[in-house]
Specification:
Blueprint: E1 15-18, E2 21-24, H1 25-34, H2 41-53, H3 63-76, E3 80-84, H4 90-98, E4 104-109, H5 115-125, E5 131-135, H6 138-150, E6 156-161, H7 168-176, E7 179-188, H8 205-218, E8 223-228, E9 234-239
Parallel strand pairs: 3-4, 3-6, 4-5, 6-7
Antiparallel strand pairs: 1-2, 7-9, 8-9
Length: 240
Amino acid sequence: MPALQQGQPFTADFHLTCGTNLYTMDALYRYILDHSSAQTDALAWIERQTNIRTNHARMLSGAVQGRFLTMLTRMISPSKALELGTFTGYSAVCIAGGLPENGHLDTLEINDELEDIITEGLEMAGVSGKVSLHIGDAKDTLKRLAAGIDAGEEQYGLIYMDANKREYPEYYSLVFDMLKPGGYILADNVLWDGKVCLDPLPQDRQTQGIARFNEIVRNDARVESVILPVRDGLNIIRKL
């Protein structure tokens, strides 16, 4: 597919041809949603509260990606997982729900105003005992967690990145040695509404950060990776 041009829509008005029919991405998403397992009551509550109590509900992972995260977590079966960017806790509940019985998730969020809804959602989902919420700057928290691993604590088997997009390259550098060989990094929003394939590439720091991150991963001989067009793009990265 040729690179999109500035101003060309990528999501709701982007069309795919299937046989003789033309489908919008919205129609395909509705079909996928209708034919996938429904979200739990706890996740539905988090979604409602996110729409009611925040101004950024679009940042929510959503039912399809959430189910995908749970299934990936179950397949990987890590005893330790790490999440960068909790937001209101939807993805944290999905990851924690896929962990083995003794599994644990460290989840990082900078906005302390979201702590109440996060903790309520975790408790409602019955996974609060599997999750440690760390409020503060992600880079500072990562350095503290890395120090524990350097001191002999177990490495992570799964790391989910969904925090500040402009800092993805730095996050990647910080978490790489925290990930065990054979472990996975799941990086969200790596298609960034299609901006990463615009020509010329937009100069805003978030698009630049995502594009640079994707190039770093592609050229990193220490990993193998594949980008899936799930929602806004998910880069699945396996450490060799």
